[in-house]
Amino acid sequence: MSRRAVSVAAGAAVVVAALLLVGGGCSFYIGDLLEEARANIASEGEGEGDGGEGDTGEGEGEGEIDDDDPACEAEERLLVVRDDRAGGGLDALQVYDLQPGSFRRRFAEGNDLNVDLVNDDDNAETNGYGASSVALGSDDRLYVVGDRFLYQLRKSTLVQQDIDGGPMLTLAAFSSFTSMQLLGEHVLIAGTADLLDRAEDAPVGSAPLVLSQHDTYGRSVAFNVDSTGFVVVVGAFGYVLYTDTGAGGAPAVGPDIDVESDTARIHSFGGVQAAQKGVAFDATTRSLLIGDLGRVIVAPESDGFDASLGDGSGDLVIADAEQVSVLGIAARGGSAWVLLGRSTNNLLKIDLNTSPPTILDQTTVDTNGLVGSITVGCRRVVVAGSAGIKSVARDDLSPTGNLGVADVSEVRLVRRIQLGLAGDDGT
């Protein structure tokens, strides 16, 4: 059976705008509806929002920041997620503004305490727990995921709130969750054994919808094209795309691409190495970018973001890097920044306006324990490792400031107005 079908747990809610028919644990792919979805995507107008993994475009299309404005960085905030398992969720989320050549930590007005996640699970209290990813929800909600647990905070105060009647929501018995994106009114959460969907306003006691259990999932990216929202999640064997169906409905699945569809371009990394595949979207060129071994796969909107429809001629093939994984990708304004792994720590700037993309510049970003989370803003690119954060200028990759923060699992640049931190007026 083709892995373009998505596995949905028996008894789960029916996915609306049905691209799937589900029955008794089997899934049936409906090719005609996917072709119609591709046609709808290809017919839309200008795209909104660029981003790298972890990014939600440029503020989900709300109020563009002019990258040529010298003051544009005053409207950006860096979210830093820390996976301090030994400390048990201590200082799990940090917020910084961007200063010339540096970063400055910010706290909510009236609350200068660190975000120390509360978890009453006996096993977590005994063995420790941390945080892996953050997502900005609707209204005043912010979500943090780590290990098997989902937490909810207020964006304005960064104070932890009850979720599902307790301090955290247990998502699964064994899976560990590594990335998370908001799609419409749904939080999509990617883990080592499950890809889950939790409605923001889900009733207390309702289990998250299992979207898929056929892969080991890692990084993800959310982006908008016109009025339609998308989330792409990368797995050990490929990637899957979900579309916002609107009106609070569950996400609809789009192309579900696996290694079997193109063994020359898409490789299985296996296990936790699924997290070592970068993913990004560039709105200027309307291109989805997927990291692989020595290659950045380019899946354009004209193909419905389906990489299996291309022959690879539009991909960036990195010379002498056949066994080097593309750990992270960030994209904006027709350029992308590609972070290579396998101890190279090389960061490439590439031009997406050519086919295949061309390498414009290169530098080394040594974070002394590379994790590979990367994000791009109006002026700088920020790269995170387990022992530090480095940033470089978008244009020439010159250093723009570092942070000596340990145990970093994710960085995200978001707009100040998106976060809405109490007392943060941009000064």
What does the model show?
The chain has helices spanning 31-42, 122-127, 416-419; strands at 20-23, 26-29, 47-48, 51-52, 76-82, 93-99, 102-106, 133-136, 141-146, 149-154, 160-161, 169-170, 177-183, 186-191, 195-199, 209-212, 217-225, 228-235, 238-243, 252-258, 279-282, 287-292, 295-300, 316-317, 326-332, 335-340, 346-351, 358-364, 370-376, 380-385, 388-393, 399-403, 408-415. The protein has one domain: Methylamine Dehydrogenase, Chain H (7 Propeller). It has 427 residues and is mainly β. The strands form 8 sheets. It has a 5-stranded antiparallel sheet, covered by helices on one side. The protein has a 5-stranded antiparallel sheet with strand order 4-21-22-23-24, with no helix packed on it. It is built from 3 helices and 33 strands.
Spatial sequence of strands, sheet with the most strands = 3-17-18-19-20
Strand content: 35-45%
CATH class: Mainly Beta
Shape category: globular
CATH fold type = Methylamine Dehydrogenase, Chain H
Chain-averaged pLDDT: 83
Question: Are there runs of 5+ residues with pLDDT below 50, and where?
Answer: 1-49, 57-63
Please provide the count of β strands: 33
What count of helical segments does DSSP give? 3
Notable characteristics:
427 residues; mainly beta; Methylamine Dehydrogenase, Chain H; five-stranded antiparallel β-sheet; 3 helices; 5% helix; disordered N terminus
Q: Which helices and strands appear, and what pairs or packs with what?
A:
Blueprint: E1 20-23, E2 26-29, H1 31-42, E3 47-48, E4 51-52, E5 76-82, E6 93-99, E7 102-106, H2 122-127, E8 133-136, E9 141-146, E10 149-154, E11 160-161, E12 169-170, E13 177-183, E14 186-191, E15 195-199, E16 209-212, E17 217-225, E18 228-235, E19 238-243, E20 252-258, E21 279-282, E22 287-292, E23 295-300, E24 316-317, E25 326-332, E26 335-340, E27 346-351, E28 358-364, E29 370-376, E30 380-385, E31 388-393, E32 399-403, E33 408-415, H3 416-419
Antiparallel strand pairs: 1-2, 3-17, 4-21, 5-6, 5-33, 6-7, 8-9, 9-10, 10-11, 10-12, 13-14, 14-15, 15-16, 17-18, 18-19, 19-20, 21-22, 22-23, 23-24, 25-26, 26-27, 27-28, 29-30, 30-31, 31-32
